[in-house]
Amino acid sequence: xxxxxxxxxxxxxxxxxxxxxxxxxxxxxxxxxxxxxxxxxxxxxxxxxxxxxxxxxxxxxxxxxxxxxxxxxxxxxxxxxxxxxxxxxxxxxxxxxxxxxxxxxxxxxxxxxxxxxxxxxxxxxxxxxxxxxxxxx
Length: 137
Hints:
This protein has 137 residues and is α+β, with helices and mostly antiparallel strands. The protein folds into two domains: 71 residues, no CATH class; 43 residues. Helix 1 packs antiparallel against helix 2.
């Protein structure tokens, strides 16, 4: 994890924490328009929460443009730096994602294992959001 990933994660957590403090103080009101959740906030904690969430998104978006680690690029025709006899094979990364459209999660992944983990994570997030929504409304 590079420093921009860590920074965006920390900013996101602090932003959610600020919203939680504002919600507990009664300065944030939550609602749902059609299937899209929204909030209306007033006060310092709400503004700070929005600012921190915005900064976390910005720091996450500039992460790919930062060259923190410069690794040499090897392909199958170059030799392995550790063992010069065998060709270097680069490991392929796995990816996946969850997109929530209202309460409905859309899950995609490169392989079955990643998709299964994301499906479990989507169900957990759905249940947590349903419990929170039942207390709010």
